[in-house]
Amino acid sequence: MNADLLPLWGLDPEITFLNNGSFGATPKVVLAAVAQVHREMEAEPVRFHARQLPGRIAVARESVAQFLGADPEGLAFVPNATTGVNAVLRSFPWKAGDGLLLADQTYNAVKQTALWVSRRYGVELQWAKLPFPLESADDMVAPWVDAMTPNTRLAVVDHVASPTAMILPVEKILAALHDLGIPVLVDGAHAPGMLPLDLQALGAEFYVGNLHKWAYAAKGAAILQVAESWREGLSPVCISHGYGQGLRAEFDWTGTMDPSPYLTAPIALDFWRKMDRELGGVAAFNHALVREGRKLVAEALGTPLPHPDDPQLYGPMAATLWPEPFSGDYRQVADLNARLYADHGIEVPFTTYDDRIWLRVSGQVFNSPADYERLADVLRGGWR
Ligand SMILES: Cc1ncc(COP(=O)(O)O)c(C=O)c1O
Q: Model-level pTM?
């Protein structure tokens, strides 16, 4: 781990932590800000929730909107990407027989939400088959158009795919789908803090993104951006006092909860900017770690790299091919993950796609090249 930067986190120094991708890791400065919000909340809960909170959420929203190039009028906080996706898919004006287009690499929780919608409203699920391994980001455009039908009403397009870590060319996919009149929900669970974003310029009808994965926020901070013409009729998963009073009123209060992840998001973004300045670009720093790290791991495993070294294709996460096939039983990957952790104190996810298993390494500023060497040493030694 990076001896200079690791002390800024509370991470266990005994663990080689190569999985920022799943949940992020919150720096101490943000946790201290969360604790301060808790103190203010408990000093006078009614003053905090009833009188101060609306204004404080508005201030935090402005700051986050600026970071993401979002329109604050159409920006809602949600606790996580799954909740944002649920709000959109469950509010959409479905009719029986409508089609919902997704990809086979879509995150499982999103697939399950789509399945619920399909059963509840008689919606047909349509699957774009994304190539992997692949040579170029452009290979990920045509499958969306190929999978749609005249009944397709909405597409859910990942910005960064979970099992393979591929960055999808969302601008091109959006252009292709918009040409055919299909509105798009972009699942950018990984994107804020990982990729430069200008959500207004991107022009998706709906965009969901986590702040707690790569933007250093406390867990429970995510956003939903909605284009103006889609705001009416969109409700949060949990309806409360603000029902029918506009997007912000509906989403700002969904019952009593701990809003500290939202309120401290600006502190997290300041920390991101500080890292960005000091390291000459967080994205480039993290990508460089993973670019070299994935080669070490693939060499140790004796498997080919699944895609070229193109920073348009992958950022601070990369998938390397595991030498044994996926049996179809998820206990196989859960067991690999648990044993590697128990045997060597290395935290790294095993993902699956088609009939293959992938080892998905992350790079975050607290990592160092020695972390990937350590993993490669274990694999070279024959650990399976
Ligand atoms: C592509 C994608 N979508 C959605 C999610 C869900 O994120 P959350 O658990 O924060 O809701 C993830 C989490 O890893 C993801 O990778």
A: 0.98
